[in-house]
Design a protein that fits this description.
This protein is mostly helical and 61 residues long. The chain contains 4 helices and 2 strands, in the order H-E-H-H-E-H.
Length: 61
């Protein structure tokens, strides 16, 4: 078993609390996706929650 030191990990970004509309604007999500995330989490959520629950259209060439 290996022990992980928290000093070397970047846990601050994953636990940062975002305003859902600000997160959606920064990540260029459409209004439907913003409404879905607000219904799911309310006006605020952590970055990890938002990243794992957002859906984006695939970018084809």
């Amino acid at each position: 078993m290996q022990q992980v030191e928290l000093e070397g990990t970047n846990s601050i970004m994953a636990t940062r609390v975002w305003s859902v509309p600000e997160f959606c604007a920064r990540h260029r999500l459409d209004n439907n996706e913003e409404a879905r995330l607000i219904a799911l989490f309310g006006p605020f959520a952590t970055a990890a929650e938002l990243m794992h629950n957002m859906t984006r259209a695939p970018k084809f060439r």
